[in-house]
């Protein structure tokens, strides 16, 4: 089956001037300038982590809390493709951050890098770009880029996103089928302005990735992916997502995600042999959604990620503080979402969830246990000159027993306020 699909892709790409290509994205190109876009995204983020039960700030060893406030601006340009059988284009970005509040005694939230004296940087900036070409419905991009593969994903949870450097090919030649393959040789962290600053600049040597997703029906999607991160680990991933319509305002969704990770070479990220999966079931009823999920890890270690991007954990119980991904961990989640559009307030939403994990093996003979409660509310302006301006409030309370505190995270309350405004210039 795999050989047949790849043969069909090769045939479709070689069609060039055939009727198949006429209906392709490249065949409908309007031009380099005509299809271009320019977006300026402004983000302000306040973040406070208040460590409980007498714990100090693990980063500075002084104050019992971390607190930062910063402002970022990310300008993203995406050109269209030139017309013709093969289209050429360019993507580029420029971003910067400014510290509004936060001292060395309260550092560690990941909003700013530290200078040589250990103080948070007052401002930082970086820029990058990529070239791209398109043949029919296949795009090749080389350079600096943001990636969202389940086995290699750049994180955007702070002021600026991580940025990967490498090559990525994405093909959508067959309706419902998307294929991708790539090789990345550098990854910059969210606060690292250098080209290769993940894990202190000693992390990523190379990462080869491949993936495929297929929309079997309107309600059923399947996906697989694999990666080989040199001297760290190899991963395989699977996702199955099915939605059962019940009525006009009711549905039941099932989402399964699983990873298999094996150590590779020098295993610079530590022991990595692990299997982890999650299954979530969500019942939607009008404005309400009720979700339950279970997640389980087995193997010689917990699930490892980071050198392949800090967004590379597509699992149900990866939430605000904990990922519930330790060795042999079992975790359960209960979640409730409310969309206020049905009550006359479009753009306003609420979410709360509770996750409990146990059976964690730290090799001490004591079972690790952890719980986390999240609350989130978000409002997005729907019209007017500030359309799409959003306000987001997030709160988390994390608690664990002694062995879990010692090996993973201290008890903490995490409060964040994020204001974001994406302005479309082109």
Automatic annotation (TrEMBL):
GO MF entries: hydrolase activity; porin activity
Keyword Flavoprotein part of the UniProt annotation: no
Enzyme's top EC category: hydrolase
Pfam families reported for this sequence: OprD
Chain positions covered by the region annotation Disordered: 109-128
Superkingdom as given in the UniProt entry: Bacteria
EC number: 3.4.21.-
Keywords: Hydrolase, Signal, Transport
Signal peptide coordinates: 1-23
Record InterPro entries: OM_porin_bac (IPR005318), Porin_dom_sf (IPR023614)
Gene Ontology, cellular component aspect: membrane
Family: Belongs to the outer membrane porin (Opr) (TC 1.B.25) family.
Protein name (database record): Porin D
């Amino acid at each position: 089956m795999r050989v047949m699909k790849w043969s069909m892709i090769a045939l479709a790409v070689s069609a060039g001037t055939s009727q198949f290509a006429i209906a392709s994205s490249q065949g409908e190109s309007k031009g380099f300038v005509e299809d271009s876009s320019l977006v300026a995204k402004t983000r302000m983020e306040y973040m406070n982590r208040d460590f409980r039960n007498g714990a100090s700030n693990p980063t500075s060893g002084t104050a019992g809390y971390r607190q930062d406030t910063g402002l970022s601006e990310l300008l993203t340009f995406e050109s269209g493709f030139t017309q013709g059988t093969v289209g050429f284009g360019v993507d580029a970005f420029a971003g910067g951050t400014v510290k509004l509040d936060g001292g060395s005694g309260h550092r560690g939230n990941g909003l700013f890098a530290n200078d040589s004296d250990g103080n948070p940087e007052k401002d930082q900036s970086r820029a990058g770009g990529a070239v791209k070409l398109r043949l029919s419905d296949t795009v090749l991009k080389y350079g600096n880029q943001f990636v969202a593969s389940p086995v290699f994903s750049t994180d955007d949870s702070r002021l600026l996103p991580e940025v990967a450097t490498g090559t990525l090919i994405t093909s959508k030649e067959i309706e419902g089928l998307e294929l991708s393959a790539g090789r990345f040789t550098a990854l910059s962290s969210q606060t690292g302005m250098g080209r290769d600053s993940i894990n202190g600049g000693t992390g990523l040597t190379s990462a080869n990735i491949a993936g495929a997703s297929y929309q079997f029906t309107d309600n059923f999607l399947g996906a697989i992916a694999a990666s080989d991160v040199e001297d760290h680990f190899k991963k395989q991933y699977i996702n199955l997502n099915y939605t059962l319509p019940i009525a006009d305002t009711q549905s039941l969704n099932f989402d399964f995600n699983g990873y298999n990770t094996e150590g590779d070479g020098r295993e610079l990220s530590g022991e990595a042999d692990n299997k982890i999966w999650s299954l979530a079931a969500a019942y939607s009823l009008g404005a309400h959604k009720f979700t339950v999920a279970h997640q389980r890890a087995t193997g010689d270690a917990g699930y490892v990620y980071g050198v392949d991007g800090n967004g590379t954990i597509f699992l149900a119980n990866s939430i605000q503080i904990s990922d519930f991904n330790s060795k042999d961990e079992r975790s359960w989640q209960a979640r409730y979402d409310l969309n206020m559009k049905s009550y006359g307030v479009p753009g306003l939403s609420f979410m709360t969830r509770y996750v409990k994990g146990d059976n964690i093996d730290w090799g001490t003979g004591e079972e690790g246990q952890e719980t986390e409660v999240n609350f989130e509310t978000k409002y997005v302006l729907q019209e007017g000159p500030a359309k799409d301006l959003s306000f987001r409030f997030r709160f988390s309370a994390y608690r664990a027993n002694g062995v879990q505190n010692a090996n993973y995270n201290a008890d903490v309350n995490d409060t964040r306020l994020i204001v974001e405004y994406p302005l479309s210039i082109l």
